[in-house]
Structures are given as C-alpha cells and as structure tokens.
What we know:
Elements: E1 2-6, H1 18-31, E2 36-42, H2 49-52, E3 56-65, E4 68-79, E5 82-88, H3 90-93, H4 104-118, E6 128-132, H5 138-147, H6 151-154, E7 157-162, E8 170-172, H7 175-178, H8 187-190, E9 191-192, E10 195-197, H9 198-205, E11 208-211, H10 214-219, H11 223-226, H12 230-235, E12 240-242, H13 271-282, E13 292-297, H14 306-316, E14 321-327, H15 331-343, E15 348-352, H16 356-365, E16 368-371, H17 381-387, E17 391-395, H18 398-403, E18 415-417, H19 422-437, H20 442-450, H21 457-471
Parallel strand pairs: 1-2, 1-6, 2-5, 6-7, 7-11, 11-12, 13-14, 13-16, 14-15, 16-17, 17-18
Antiparallel strand pairs: 3-4, 4-5, 8-10, 9-10
Helix pairs in contact: 1-21, 4-5, 5-9, 13-16, 14-19
Amino acid sequence: MNILFATSEAVPFVKSGGLADVAGSLTRAVRNRGHACRVVLPLYDDIPKQIRAGMKFITYFNTPLAWRNQYCGVFEKTEKGVKYYFLDNEYYFKRSGLYGFFDDGERFAFFSRAVLEMLNYIDFAPDIIHCNDWQTALIPVYLDVFYRCDKKFRQIKTVFTIHNVQYQGAFDQNIAQDVLGLPESAGNVVEFNGLCNFMKGAIEQSGALTTVSPTYAGELLDPWFAHGLDALIKSKKCKLRGILNGIDTQIYDPSADPDIAKNYTARSIQGKAKNKTALQKLMQLSPTPGRMLIGMVTRLVSHKGLDLVKLALDRLMEMPVQLAILGSGDAQYEEFFREASSKYEGRLSVCLGFDHTLSHKIYAGADAFLMPSRSEPCGLSQMIAMRYGALPIVRLTGGLADSVSDFGGENGNGYTFLTYNENDMLDAIGRALNDYKNKDIWPGRVKTAMQCDFSWGLSAGKYIDLYKQLTGN
C-alpha cells in the first residue's frame, strides 16, 4: 500500500508536541513493514537552516483557495528511509512559530488544499491519506468536494486521527466560502455551533476516525472530555477506534543515548545513580542521600495537572523528595514555579522552556516521573520515563490508563491514582517513596518498568490493518 501521512509537524524537522514524534516514528514503522509511506508538512521558517540546505526542490504549482490562486513550492528530503515533502509558501509559513496566528484558518486551509494539488505533480499515488489534527482536517473535506470526480483521486481513502480534541480549528463561519472556498452546498460539513470547525469536517468526511489510545477513544464520547464534539463522535462511533501511540526506541535508548552521563540497561541499572548525581549538579539540587528525585517534562498548562502540584507543593516538599521540572506554558504556572524554586532552593529546580538534551537527562536521572494530568489523550513521557527506569506516577486518564498499571496489582509498572485530587496524588507519591526506601524492592521495579515494550511494533500493525480494511486489501 501507499500511505501519505499529512501532518503539521514532524521530528526531526520541527516540533511543538507529541504529534511530531508520532509523525517521525509511526511512518518509519509502517515503512519497515513493507509499505510505501511518505510524509508531507509545511516548510516552516523554524526548520533549521542546516536541514533546509539538504532539501531538493522538485516542482511548483498554484493552489486555488476561494478567489485566491497561491504559489506552492515542493521540496523533498529522505530521512531514515522515509521521504518527506515540504510545501513552501513564504506568505503563510515564513514566520517564527508554527501556530497561534490570526490567519491560521487560511494558512492550514491552504496547506490542506495544496496537499491534494501536489498529487498531480509528484510520482506517488497514495491509497491512504492519513490526516492528523485540525491543521490537516480539511483534506477529507476537499477530497470529497473537489477531487472525487478525477479518477486519480477516486479510490483514495482517508484516516483522521484526533491527537487532542481540545484544539479543533474553530473559526468564524464566514471563512467557509471566502477563505476555504467551499460551495454553499458543502458549508454544513464544517459548520458547528455557529462556527466553521475544521475537525468537525474531518470527523464527518473521513473514512476512518482514530485517536491515540483506547481509553481516550471512550472518553471522547463523554461531554467532560470531548469539548462539545461528544454527540457528533457518538454518531460516528462505528468508525472510531483508539490505537495507543508508541515511542521511538532508537532515540530513547538509555544503553546508547549520547546525551546522558552514563549509559545503562535493564540488566545493569547501576548507571542510573551516576545520571542522578549529574542531574542534581546540573539543576543545582542538593546531593542529599535518600531523597527520591521526581522529574517532570511537561507543558505548563492546566490539563497537565499543574493545579494539583500547586495545591500539594508545600506538603510534597515536606517529604524526602526533590523535584526537577522542565517545561513552558501559561504565565501563571511559570511564575509560580519560578518563585517556588527560590523558596525551595536545592529541593526544587525549574528550567523554563524546552531543551531536548535536558529532557533526556531528566528521564535518565529521575527516580520517579510525575504526570497528574486532568486529561492526557496518550502521553509519551510516561513511556519514555519507563524506558529510562524513572517510575511513573500518573492519574488514570487517557493513554496513561492504557500504559501504566499500579504495582499494587498484577503486572504493575508504576503508581496510579484515579480522582483528580491533590491528596490522592500525594498518596501515590507516598507509596512510591515507601518503595524507593526499600532497597530490596526498588531495583526490581525499575527493571520491570524498563522492560515494558512501548515500541511502535504493535501499534503500527494495527494501523496497517485499518488501512487494509479501508482499501479492501
């Protein structure tokens, strides 16, 4: 089969979140199973110059967008055996940052239409176009409205994956015709609650609807999680399935990671102690013996559970623990943790922003890893943490519930709590701390977590099965 993976970001080119990791690793896993898988994304100005220098220009064309006729250049580059296409338009993409602009609706409407136009100019005919989140959600809509009459496009099937339903691509309804260029007869496809909702269009028109964990698929039927789309998703339940994301086990490999102080394996975990010492020195945490070091690599936003950490912080700091945080986000959380790091100097250290190398050092140096999320469609950090032997402490929601089981039951690999409550979070941390103090228990639990398999093998197979069902292959 030929699969075209349409995404707004991909590792190693440009990243703002977990979608980029998925785009960079799922596609390679599908290709390694004998299928032709290519990726298309915008040519952002944020893509490093040294990477851009290795791209090859292959063609250009004009893309219709309502009354506009916009230039689109196509560049290509092969990375780890997968061919990537980059769509160039400096008006839309020569900016600092990926999202958050006043004309995001027009920018990604252009990108979605240009992906389909590109198929007239390249030597690749996809059986499946796999679309991801609202930035590519118009591809199934445009395909059905404008391209199905062309035999080249007639047999193409579409998959749409919801990575986070909170971000739907909702804009003023008047852009449906003036910007998107949809005929009046198709305006209802994207209309939702008086707005033009890109994600709604993809849910309606895609051949299959997926999300990034089985539990999150169920949560999307619940108004508390679905941000208004629960009734629509329920009506399409027959084509919905949840497939748990995986991680790139070559990038995240403590036995070969060049960014950590000492390499180690599940069979020989002694190297973790040296990584902990190195992390304490780097982040100016006291090397006091006996303190459990808890790591967090997260966006500092409310749905990541930062409210619970704020409420519990003083009590948490009364325990023999240290906290190393890497992340950026809402100003209220950045300011809170900046002040807290001064108050608890040597016990709590915060690095605001994102540093790829430091994130690896935290995974390798932490004893435990905290993710008290209010909602978490999949989450990759808990999987990465386990691969590095940092035992996860998580709230049971979304992909956290599908990947972490409590050591209190069978097949445990972490510590869990259910209620969104700071006391329950502290109880889970307390149970982890009690085990950490028991040197007869803790090393075995570290090894258990490190031996969990979160590679893309099983998940890629499930996507391939879905592709085959859609194509009748």
